[in-house]
Amino acid sequence: MSEQSQTKTTILLVEDDQSVRRGLRWSLGEGYRLLEAGTRTEAAELLEREQVDVVLSDLRLPPALDEISEGLAVVEAARKLHPPVPVIVVTGSESKEAALEAVRRGAYGFFEKPYNVDEVLHIVNQAARTHRLEQEIMRLRSELTGGRGFNHLIGASTSLEKTLKQARAVAQTTATVLLTGENGTGKEVLARAVHEESLRASAPFVAVSCAALPESLIESELFGHEKGAFTGATQSRKGRFELADGGTLFLDEIGELTPGVQVKLLRVLQERKFERVGGTKTVEVDIRLIAASNRDLEAEVEAGRFRRDLYYRLNVVPLVLPPLRARHEDIPLLAAHFTQKAAEKHGRKALELDPELLDALLEYDWPGNVRELENLIERLVVLTTAERLGVEFLPEKMLRTVPKETAVTDETTLEGATLALKRRMITSALKAESGNKVATAKRLGISRSYLHRLISELGINEGMREERRDEG
Fold first, then answer.
1. Among 255, 256, 262, 184, which residue's Cα sits nearest to residue 223?
2. Burial state string for 143-155 with b = 16 or more CB within 10 A and e = fewer than 16
3. What is the pTM of this model?
4. Are 196 and 261 within one domain?
5. CATH number, domain containing residue 369
6. Does residue 2 carry a pLDDT above 50?
7. What is the count of structural domains for the chain?
8. Between the N and C ends of the chain, which has fewer C-beta atoms within 10 Å?
9. Is residue 40 exposed (0-12), middle (13-18) or buried (19+ Cβ within 10 Å)?
C-alpha cells in the first residue's frame, strides 16, 4: 500500500451490481481509496484485513437478494470492530422501511437511489470524520492509561521474548488462546495484554478463576441463571459469557472445571450459544476466549480428567509463560520496576537496589515466580528507611542463599559456581590482569568469547583500562 493511499479515506463499497459500483466510484472521484465487495462474506474479509473508514453497502446482497438479512449482517460486522466502522446503506425508494431498520440496528445513515452526488459526498465525509475522531479518542485514552498491552510485561530474556512475539501475532486475530505456566508467572497479565492489543480492546475483559468458584456455582457463574432456577435465585442474572459479549473472556485454571461444565463449554466454543441455568431461551454471544492452566492439560487428558475434544478446541494457539527461575536476566529489570511502582504507591522517594540484594534475588529459585518477587519488593520498600534496598529485611529462607565472602583463588573454577561467585571471580581476575580480557580468560580457563558473554550477562562494570597491546 502506498503512503499516499494510507492518507486517503478508505471506503468499502458492498454491492453485487457492478454497474452500481461503477456509478459510486464515479460519484466519489479520486479523493478516496476504494475497496469493493460483492457479498457479505467478501465484505467481512476486507473489514478483517483492511483499515476501513466508511462502508457503503446495499441492503440486498446475494444469496438472499429478496431479503435485507445480508446487508444487516454487514452492518453488524462493522459494528463489532473497535472503534465501530460507520456503515451507510444504499436502498431504493421502495425500501425506505428496510433502511430505517438498518439504522435502528446501528447503521450510520442511508441514502436512496437514484442518489444526489453532493448528498453522498456529504454523508461519507461526515461519517469519516466521526470515525477518525473515535480513533483519536481511543489513542488518547490508551496514552493516558499507560502501561497497557505488552508494554506492561517487563523482561528481555529469550524465553519471554519468544512468548511475547507469538502473543503479539495472535492478538490481532480472534483465535482461542491457551496459556500455560506455573502460578505467579503472569498468565492474567498476558491475557489482558492480548486483549488490549486486539480489535476488542474497548470491549469488556472478563476474568474468571475457575478454581475459586464452588462446584455448585460454576455453571451459574459462567452461563447465568433464570429467576427460580435454584434456591436463592430470586432474579435472573447474566453469566460471565454474556458480560464478556463483544470482548474477551479469560478462564483461569480451566483444568478445575467439572466434566458437566466441560461439555457445556465445548458446545459454546463450537456454536457460540447456550441457555442459562433454568432457562430455555438460547443466548448467542461473540467472545474471544483465553484459557489458562498451571496443570499439564495434555496429561490431564491422558488421565481421563479433561475432555480431549475440549482440549483441542482450547489449544488453538498455545502460549507458555516460563518460570522466573528460567528468566534470571529479567530479575534485575523486574526488581527495579517493582521498586519504582511500590515507592510511588507508598509515597517514597526513588530507591536504589543494593548489589548484595541483587545477588540474593539472583540466587533464589522463586517458587512463587513474578508475583512472589513483586510482593517481596513491596515489603522491602515499606520496611526500609534508608535510600537503598538491602538484605536487612529479607526472609530467612532467602538469607540462607546470600553468598558469603568467598576467597577467589587460581584453583577456583567457574563451573558450578553461583552467579554471585562468578561475578566476584571475574571481577577479581579482571583486576589481577589490569583489565586485559585475553589474560583474564586464560586465568579463568575459559575462552575470550565466553568471558565477554559472562561480563554482559552478569552486568559486570569493568571500570578499568584494558591493555589492548596484548589483545591483538
1. 262
2. eeeeebbbeebbb
3. 0.59
4. yes
5. 1.10.8.60
6. no
7. 4
8. C
9. buried
